Amino acid sequence: MHSGSCLCGAVRFSVTGDLPAPNACHCSQCRKMSGHYWASIDIDRARLRIEGDSAIRWYRSSAKVRRGFCAECGAFLFWDPLAGTSTAVAMGAFDGPTGTALALHIFTDDKGDYYRINDGLPQNAQ
Question: Is domain 21-124 given the CATH code 3.90.1590.10 in the classification?
Answer without folding.
Answer: yes
